[in-house]
Specification:
Number of strands: 16
Structural class: alpha/beta
Radius of gyration: 20 Å
Number of domains: 2
Helix content: 25-40%
Largest sheet: 7 strands, mixed
Order of helices and strands: EHEEHEEEEEHHEHEHEHEHEHEHHEHE
Strand content: 25-35%
Distance between the termini: 18 Å
CATH class of the largest domain: Alpha Beta
CATH superfamily of the largest domain: Medium-chain alcohol dehydrogenases, catalytic domain
Shape: globular
Length: 331
C-alpha cells in the first residue's frame, strides 16, 4: 500500500516521501477505508514544517481529512457498513494521504454516497471551522454584520456562504484587489482591500450598524482597524497562525468597550464536543454541499505518486482553489 510519510521536519517539498507499506487489518471497533480524495491544507504544511499545534512522533504518516469507502470492518462493527462512503473526522488519530487507512468507528461519519467526492472530501476542516466561527461565540440575527480578514482563504469562503445562508451581512477584507470580484460574485456584501484607510472605508460601508463579530484570518493591523467598529462586548475570533503575526488590538477598545478575543482550533473543538454532535454537524454540512450552498473551487487534483508537484502547488499563495490528492474514480 502506498502512503506519504515524514521522517524529519522541514520544507514540505523536501521532506515528504512516498513509501510502500503493508496494509493493516481493521481491529475491534474499527473500519478499513479506501481513500477517494484527501485535501492538502495549510495546517498539513505547518505540521510537516514542525510549527503546528502538535508534533507527531517520526516517522509519521500524513493527511488529516478526506473521504473514502469502507472496504472491511473489525469485530463489533456492523458488516452492513462495508461499501459505505464515510468522512474521516480530522482528529489526527488516522491519516489520509494514503491508499487505505484504519479508522475507529467513532471517527467515520456516513455521508451521501452520490455527492461530489472532491467537495465532500473538503468538509472535514474548513466548513466545520467556518460553521463554528459563525455560531459558537455569538448568537447572530439575520441582518447582523460580520467582518472577516483574510477573506480570500478557503475557510473564509465557507464563512461567506454560511453567513449568506443564515441571512447575515459580511464585510470581507482581502490583501489583493484582484480577489474582490470573485468574493462579490459569491455573495459578499462588502469587499475591501487592506490599507491605511481600512477603518474609514469599513465605517462608510456599514453605516450606523455595528459589527457584531470579527473573524480573523491574518492578525496584525487589519483587526486593530476594524475593532473600533465592533459593538460593545463584541467578539473577535482568530483561527489561523499561518502568518505568525501577533493579534493587534487597542487596549482602550479591550478595556473600555469590553471586547473579547478568542482563539479557535478545530482539534480542541473535536476533543470537547460530544461525537454525535460532531457527526450531526458534518451531516448537516454535507446536505449543504449536496444542494449547492457550500462549494469550494478546486484548482487541481494529483495522484499520490505526484506528491512533490501537488505539495508545491498547494503551497502557492496565489492559488484560486484547493489542491487535493484524488484516488480511484475521483482521478
Amino acid at each position: 500500500m502506498k502512503t506519504l510519510q515524514l521522517s524529519t521536519f522541514g520544507e514540505p517539498t523536501d521532506v515528504v516521501e512516498l513509501a510502500e507499506i503493508a496494509s493493516a487489518d481493521a481491529g475491534p471497533g474499527q473500519l478499513a477505508v479506501a481513500i477517494e480524495a484527501a485535501p492538502i491544507n495549510p495546517s498539513d504544511l505547518m505540521l510537516i514544517r514542525g510549527v503546528y499545534g502538535v508534533r507527531p512522533e517520526l516517522p509519521a504518516a500524513l493527511g488529516a481529512e478526506g473521504i473514502g469507502r469502507v472496504v472491511a470492518v473489525g469485530d463489533g462493527v456492523d458488516t452492513a457498513r462495508v461499501g459505505e462512503r464515510v468522512l474521516i473526522v480530522p482528529t489526527l488519530e488516522q491519516t489520509t494521504w494514503r491508499e487505505r487507512t484504519i479508522v475507529d468507528e467513532r471517527n467515520a461519519v456516513p455521508i451521501d454516497a452520490d455527492g461530489d467526492p472532491l467537495q465532500l472530501a473538503m468538509l472535514g476542516i474548513n466548513p466545520i471551522t467556518a460553521y463554528s466561527l459563525l455560531h459558537r461565540y455569538v448568537k447572530l440575527a439575520p441582518g447582523a454584520w460580520v467582518a472577516q480578514t483574510g477573506a480570500s482563504s478557503a475557510t473564509a469562503r465557507y464563512v461567506l456562504a454560511l453567513a449568506r445562508h443564515a441571512g447575515l451581512r459580511t464585510l470581507n477584507v482581502v490583501r489583493r484587489a484582484d480577489s474582490a470580484e470573485s468574493l462579490l460574485e459569491a455573495g459578499g456584501d462588502v469587499v475591501l482591500v487592506e490599507g491605511d484607510d481600512l477603518a474609514d472605508q469599513a465605517a462608510d460601508a456599514i453605516g450606523e450598524a455595528p459589527l457584531e463579530l470579527i473573524i480573523d484570518g491574518v492578525a496584525g493591523e487589519p483587526v486593530a482597524q476594524l475593532a473600533p467598529l465592533l459593538k460593545t462586548g463584541g467578539q473577535i475570533v482568530s483561527y489561523t497562525a499561518r502568518g505568525r503575526q501577533p493579534l493587534s488590538i487597542s487596549i482602550l477598545d479591550l478595556i473600555f468597550r469590553g471586547l473579547s478575543v478568542h482563539g479557535y482550533w478545530l482539534n480542541l473543538w473535536l476533543e470537547s464536543t460530544p461525537r454525535e454532535t460532531v457527526a450531526q454537524t458534518y451531516r448537516e454540512l454535507a446536505t449543504l454541499v449536496a444542494d449547492g450552498t457550500l462549494a469550494a473551487p478546486v484548482e487541481a487534483t494529483y495522484a499520490l505518486a505526484d506528491y512533490r508537484e501537488a505539495i508545491a502547488h498547494a503551497a502557492h499563495n496565489d492559488r484560486n482553489g484547493k489542491v487535493l490528492f484524488a484516488l480511484g474514480s475521483t482521478q
